[in-house]
């Protein structure tokens, strides 16, 4: 059981509660048989905002990083190599404050639409923990929750691990047979997520034009992941290539953004950042800094850096992009701008509530908005989706086993 303020998260679950005859753990009756899309209304009584979590002081940094890397046997001296990013900012990650703002914005949007659903917030790796949020919701009399994970794309770390950690929290609290927890679909191509990036890219291109840059390239940046994980992201039957659903979803969204801002003639590419594995382990490439360094050789004099894989300006954005990537651009004589993340952009907040309404109303799939041919994504994750080959399949909610 998590203990607030101590940096302790629940251990991995040994199982997940299945209602009699159900195929999906801890699911509402409408989702228990694992349909791709839930097309009947569901009476949820609360929202669970599931965050990653981040330290909020120097003493929190190493315990937080131990949580993030739990089970990987990484010694503290190696964690200190990452800790200096947080220590540079006083040991405080902005991610918790962003989630406080997002929670408040969601609550306001729900109220404005006359939807009486409280929003509970719990993190995977730091206070407030997911078990605390589940206990709070249960104590208030709520029994059927709809989760919103603060990650838009399909991969182990951006989808399945959230589902596993909710299963861990249900077991740790003993609420596995008491609470039902469904999850909204991955929203990488929902208009609410895409629109803020369209606004940001249009603004970034205009800013560089004002600075006199005449040959600009747009770099869409996202967190790198191991190639083995990328290959297994999304359902295997989709056959989306070496980068799996993770790379394909980012690529598709970037194409939509460039078309939407009327910049089809502006060169762009998908790049990766923040890799943390050993050099012997293949990760998705190219690295954002390598891509920037190559731009002058292609005749570029400016670069727009778009944090396409991120919802808010958390540490990987502040350090890896605002610090390292912008420094690389300066070293190579490039005019550069890093554009905004969705944060609490009104379109993004409204879009998340639209996803809640989909499940409240059981909106048919053909009526669900999606900006790419890959979507709308599934309500219930498919079997074998987003496997982590180093950990294997662990108990998880909101998806068919394994």
From TrEMBL:
Fe(2+) binds at residues 223, 316. Coiled coil: none annotated. This is Coproporphyrin III ferrochelatase. It comes from Ruania alkalisoli. InterPro entries: Ferrochelatase (IPR001015), Ferrochelatase_C (IPR033644), Ferrochelatase_N (IPR033659). Belongs to the ferrochelatase family. NCBIfam families: hemH, PRK00035.2-1. One of its GO terms (biological process) is heme biosynthetic process. Pfam families: Ferrochelatase (PF00762). PANTHER family: FERROCHELATASE (PTHR11108), FERROCHELATASE, MITOCHONDRIAL (PTHR11108:SF1). Keywords: Cytoplasm, Heme biosynthesis, Iron, Lyase, Metal-binding, Porphyrin biosynthesis.
